[in-house]
Protein backbone atom coordinates (compact mmCIF):
# COMPACT_ATOMS: atom_id res chain seq x y z
CA UNK A 1 0.00 0.00 0.00
CA UNK A 2 1.24 3.49 -0.85
CA UNK A 3 2.09 5.45 2.30
CA UNK A 4 4.74 7.99 1.35
CA UNK A 5 6.38 10.09 -1.33
CA UNK A 6 10.09 10.91 -1.51
CA UNK A 7 11.28 13.89 -3.54
CA UNK A 8 14.58 14.91 -4.95
CA UNK A 9 14.72 18.71 -4.65
CA UNK A 10 16.82 20.24 -7.40
CA UNK A 11 15.03 19.74 -10.70
CA UNK A 12 11.90 18.22 -9.12
CA UNK A 13 10.48 20.74 -6.63
CA UNK A 14 12.29 23.75 -8.09
CA UNK A 15 14.60 24.49 -10.99
CA UNK A 16 17.71 25.04 -8.90
CA UNK A 17 19.38 22.45 -11.17
CA UNK A 18 19.84 25.22 -13.73
CA UNK A 19 21.45 27.49 -11.08
CA UNK A 20 23.81 24.65 -10.14
CA UNK A 21 24.74 24.19 -13.78
CA UNK A 22 25.31 27.91 -14.31
CA UNK A 23 27.58 28.12 -11.24
CA UNK A 24 29.53 25.02 -12.33
CA UNK A 25 29.87 26.35 -15.90
CA UNK A 26 31.28 29.60 -14.53
CA UNK A 27 33.82 27.78 -12.34
CA UNK A 28 34.75 25.39 -15.18
CA UNK A 29 35.47 28.34 -17.45
CA UNK A 30 37.60 29.99 -14.79
CA UNK A 31 39.85 26.92 -14.76
CA UNK A 32 39.89 26.56 -18.54
CA UNK A 33 37.30 23.82 -18.99
CA UNK A 34 34.35 24.01 -21.39
CA UNK A 35 31.60 21.63 -20.34
CA UNK A 36 29.93 19.52 -23.08
CA UNK A 37 26.10 19.42 -23.31
CA UNK A 38 25.96 15.98 -21.63
CA UNK A 39 27.38 17.56 -18.45
CA UNK A 40 23.82 18.82 -17.90
CA UNK A 41 22.65 15.33 -16.88
CA UNK A 42 26.00 14.06 -15.57
CA UNK A 43 26.15 16.79 -12.90
CA UNK A 44 22.56 16.48 -11.71
CA UNK A 45 22.10 14.88 -8.32
CA UNK A 46 25.81 14.42 -7.57
CA UNK A 47 27.34 15.77 -4.40
CA UNK A 48 29.45 18.93 -4.61
CA UNK A 49 32.80 17.10 -4.61
CA UNK A 50 31.58 14.37 -6.99
CA UNK A 51 30.41 17.13 -9.35
CA UNK A 52 33.78 18.86 -9.21
CA UNK A 53 35.49 15.56 -10.02
CA UNK A 54 33.24 15.05 -13.04
CA UNK A 55 34.18 18.56 -14.25
CA UNK A 56 37.89 17.89 -13.81
CA UNK A 57 37.48 14.66 -15.80
CA UNK A 58 35.91 16.60 -18.67
CA UNK A 59 38.94 18.90 -18.65
CA UNK A 60 41.50 16.14 -18.19
CA UNK A 61 42.57 17.84 -14.95
CA UNK A 62 42.13 14.98 -12.46
CA UNK A 63 45.00 14.98 -9.96
CA UNK A 64 46.00 18.54 -10.79
CA UNK A 65 44.82 20.11 -7.51
CA UNK A 66 45.59 19.54 -3.82
CA UNK A 67 42.70 18.79 -1.44
CA UNK A 68 42.86 22.40 -0.15
CA UNK A 69 42.60 23.70 -3.72
CA UNK A 70 39.69 21.35 -4.46
CA UNK A 71 37.92 22.63 -1.34
CA UNK A 72 38.52 26.20 -2.47
CA UNK A 73 37.10 25.50 -5.95
CA UNK A 74 34.01 23.81 -4.47
CA UNK A 75 33.54 26.69 -2.04
CA UNK A 76 33.85 29.22 -4.88
CA UNK A 77 31.08 27.46 -6.80
CA UNK A 78 28.91 27.24 -3.70
CA UNK A 79 29.25 30.98 -3.06
CA UNK A 80 28.06 31.79 -6.58
CA UNK A 81 25.24 29.26 -6.23
CA UNK A 82 24.10 30.59 -2.86
CA UNK A 83 24.01 34.06 -4.31
CA UNK A 84 21.66 32.89 -7.08
CA UNK A 85 19.23 31.03 -4.78
CA UNK A 86 18.84 34.05 -2.47
CA UNK A 87 16.14 35.55 -4.66
CA UNK A 88 14.00 32.37 -4.74
CA UNK A 89 10.38 32.64 -3.62
CA UNK A 90 7.28 30.46 -3.71
CA UNK A 91 6.91 31.46 -7.37
CA UNK A 92 9.95 29.29 -8.05
CA UNK A 93 8.14 26.07 -7.15
CA UNK A 94 7.91 24.14 -10.44
CA UNK A 95 4.50 24.03 -12.22
CA UNK A 96 2.06 21.56 -10.66
CA UNK A 97 4.21 20.66 -7.67
CA UNK A 98 2.33 22.70 -5.07
CA UNK A 99 -0.97 21.06 -6.09
CA UNK A 100 0.69 17.66 -5.97
CA UNK A 101 2.04 18.27 -2.45
CA UNK A 102 -1.35 19.53 -1.23
CA UNK A 103 -3.12 16.52 -2.73
CA UNK A 104 -0.59 14.14 -1.18
CA UNK A 105 -1.15 15.72 2.23
CA UNK A 106 -4.93 15.41 1.83
CA UNK A 107 -4.44 11.71 1.06
CA UNK A 108 -2.47 11.33 4.29
CA UNK A 109 0.76 10.42 2.52
CA UNK A 110 4.01 11.11 4.37
CA UNK A 111 6.52 13.30 2.52
CA UNK A 112 10.32 13.41 2.61
CA UNK A 113 13.19 15.09 0.79
CA UNK A 114 16.15 13.07 -0.54
CA UNK A 115 18.46 15.77 -1.85
CA UNK A 116 22.22 15.62 -2.07
CA UNK A 117 22.28 19.37 -1.58
CA UNK A 118 23.53 20.87 1.66
CA UNK A 119 21.57 23.96 0.61
CA UNK A 120 18.23 22.10 0.61
CA UNK A 121 16.97 23.60 3.93
CA UNK A 122 17.70 27.15 2.64
CA UNK A 123 15.86 26.46 -0.61
CA UNK A 124 12.83 24.92 1.14
CA UNK A 125 12.74 27.95 3.43
CA UNK A 126 12.84 30.38 0.48
CA UNK A 127 10.12 28.41 -1.30
CA UNK A 128 8.02 28.44 1.91
CA UNK A 129 7.67 24.67 1.74
CA UNK A 130 9.16 23.83 5.14
CA UNK A 131 5.78 22.80 6.58
CA UNK A 132 5.41 20.06 3.97
CA UNK A 133 8.75 18.51 4.78
CA UNK A 134 9.51 17.80 8.42
CA UNK A 135 11.61 14.90 7.11
CA UNK A 136 14.73 15.88 5.16
CA UNK A 137 17.68 13.54 4.82
CA UNK A 138 20.84 15.28 6.05
CA UNK A 139 23.41 14.65 3.29
CA UNK A 140 26.20 15.11 5.88
CA UNK A 141 25.16 11.75 7.39
CA UNK A 142 25.64 9.82 4.13
CA UNK A 143 28.67 7.84 3.03
CA UNK A 144 27.76 7.50 -0.64
CA UNK A 145 26.22 9.84 -3.21
CA UNK A 146 23.61 8.99 -5.84
CA UNK A 147 23.54 6.55 -7.74
CA UNK A 148 24.12 4.69 -4.45
CA UNK A 149 20.69 3.91 -2.90
CA UNK A 150 21.74 5.16 0.58
CA UNK A 151 19.89 8.52 0.45
CA UNK A 152 16.57 6.98 -0.66
CA UNK A 153 16.84 4.23 1.96
CA UNK A 154 17.57 6.92 4.58
CA UNK A 155 14.46 8.87 3.46
CA UNK A 156 12.29 5.75 3.64
CA UNK A 157 13.64 5.06 7.15
CA UNK A 158 12.89 8.65 8.25
CA UNK A 159 9.28 7.97 7.25
CA UNK A 160 9.33 4.56 8.91
CA UNK A 161 8.20 2.89 5.67
CA UNK A 162 9.21 -0.06 3.50
CA UNK A 163 10.57 0.23 -0.05
CA UNK A 164 7.29 -0.99 -1.57
CA UNK A 165 5.26 1.63 0.32
CA UNK A 166 6.81 4.70 -1.34
CA UNK A 167 7.06 6.46 -4.69
CA UNK A 168 10.26 8.45 -5.30
CA UNK A 169 10.65 11.33 -7.77
CA UNK A 170 13.85 12.23 -9.64
CA UNK A 171 15.06 14.33 -12.57
CA UNK A 172 18.54 12.79 -12.88
CA UNK A 173 19.61 9.41 -14.25
CA UNK A 174 21.93 8.96 -11.23
CA UNK A 175 18.93 9.62 -8.97
CA UNK A 176 16.67 7.18 -10.82
CA UNK A 177 19.44 4.57 -10.57
CA UNK A 178 19.62 5.24 -6.81
CA UNK A 179 15.84 4.80 -6.42
CA UNK A 180 15.86 1.53 -8.33
CA UNK A 181 18.83 0.25 -6.31
CA UNK A 182 16.71 1.01 -3.21
CA UNK A 183 13.93 -1.15 -4.77
CA UNK A 184 11.45 1.74 -4.73
CA UNK A 185 9.00 2.82 -7.45
CA UNK A 186 10.73 5.52 -9.53
CA UNK A 187 9.03 8.43 -11.25
CA UNK A 188 11.39 10.12 -13.70
CA UNK A 189 10.83 13.76 -14.66
CA UNK A 190 12.60 14.69 -17.88
CA UNK A 191 13.95 13.03 -21.02
CA UNK A 192 12.61 9.47 -21.36
CA UNK A 193 15.81 8.24 -23.01
CA UNK A 194 18.01 9.59 -20.23
CA UNK A 195 15.65 8.37 -17.48
CA UNK A 196 14.79 5.01 -19.11
CA UNK A 197 15.36 3.11 -15.85
CA UNK A 198 12.36 4.81 -14.21
CA UNK A 199 9.06 2.92 -13.77
CA UNK A 200 7.00 5.90 -14.91
CA UNK A 201 8.25 8.95 -16.84
CA UNK A 202 6.81 12.40 -17.55
CA UNK A 203 8.55 15.12 -19.62
CA UNK A 204 8.17 17.83 -16.95
CA UNK A 205 6.39 18.60 -13.67
CA UNK A 206 3.44 20.22 -15.48
CA UNK A 207 2.67 16.78 -16.94
CA UNK A 208 2.96 15.10 -13.54
CA UNK A 209 -0.31 14.22 -11.79
CA UNK A 210 -0.39 12.31 -8.54
CA UNK A 211 -3.34 10.12 -9.68
CA UNK A 212 -1.43 8.95 -12.78
CA UNK A 213 1.73 8.18 -10.83
CA UNK A 214 -0.33 6.29 -8.24
CA UNK A 215 -2.12 4.32 -10.99
CA UNK A 216 1.24 3.33 -12.48
CA UNK A 217 2.48 2.33 -9.01
CA UNK A 218 -0.59 0.15 -8.40
CA UNK A 219 -0.47 -1.40 -11.87
P1 LIG B 1 25.16 21.46 -2.87
P2 LIG B 1 19.45 17.05 -5.68
C1 LIG B 1 21.92 18.00 -5.94
O1 LIG B 1 20.63 18.15 -5.46
C2 LIG B 1 22.07 18.72 -7.25
O2 LIG B 1 21.28 18.11 -8.25
C3 LIG B 1 23.52 18.68 -7.69
O3 LIG B 1 23.67 19.36 -8.90
C4 LIG B 1 24.38 19.31 -6.59
O4 LIG B 1 25.73 19.26 -6.93
C5 LIG B 1 24.14 18.56 -5.28
O5 LIG B 1 22.77 18.60 -4.96
C6 LIG B 1 24.92 19.14 -4.12
O6 LIG B 1 24.43 20.41 -3.83
O7 LIG B 1 26.42 21.88 -3.54
O8 LIG B 1 24.12 22.54 -2.76
O9 LIG B 1 25.40 20.75 -1.56
O10 LIG B 1 19.19 16.97 -7.15
O11 LIG B 1 19.95 15.77 -5.05
O12 LIG B 1 18.30 17.70 -4.91
MG1 LIG C 1 17.82 16.60 -8.98
Please characterize this protein's 3D structure:
With 219 residues, this protein is α/β, with parallel strands linked by helices. It has a 6-stranded parallel beta sheet, sandwiched between helices. Helix 1 packs across helix 4. The longest helix is centred in the middle third of the chain and has 19 residues. The radius of gyration is 17 Å and the shape is globular. The relative contact order is 0.18. Bound molecules: 1,6-di-O-phosphono-beta-D-glucopyranose and magnesium ion. 1,6-di-O-phosphono-beta-D-glucopyranose binds next to helix 1 and helix 3.
How many angstroms separate the termini?
A: 12 Å
Q: What's the count of strands?
A: 6
Number of helices: 9
Structural class designation: alpha/beta
Q: Quick one: biggest sheet?
A: 6 strands, parallel
Q: Average pLDDT across residues?
A: 96
The level of helicity is 40-55%
Give the amount of beta strand, in percent: 5-15%
Low-confidence segments: none
Bound molecule types: 1,6-di-O-phosphono-beta-D-glucopyranose, magnesium ion
* Basic shape: globular
Please list the strands of the largest sheet in the order they lie side by side: 3-2-1-4-5-6
Please state the CA-atom Rg, rounded to the nearest Å.
Answer: 17 Å
Element string (H = helix, E = strand): EHHHHHEHEHEHEEH
EC number: 5.4.2.6
Organism: Lacticaseibacillus pabuli
InterPro entries: B-phosphoglucomutase_hydrolase, Beta-PGM, HAD-like_sf, HAD-like_SPP, HAD-SF_hydro_IA, HAD_sf, PGP-like_dom2
Protein name: Beta-phosphoglucomutase
Amino acid sequence: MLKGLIFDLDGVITDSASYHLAAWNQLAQEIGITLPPEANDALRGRSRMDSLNVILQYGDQVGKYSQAELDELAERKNKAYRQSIKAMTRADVLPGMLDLLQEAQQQGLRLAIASASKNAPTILHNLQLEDYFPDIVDPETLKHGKPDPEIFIAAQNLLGLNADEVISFEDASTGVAAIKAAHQFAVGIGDAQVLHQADYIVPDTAALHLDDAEAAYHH
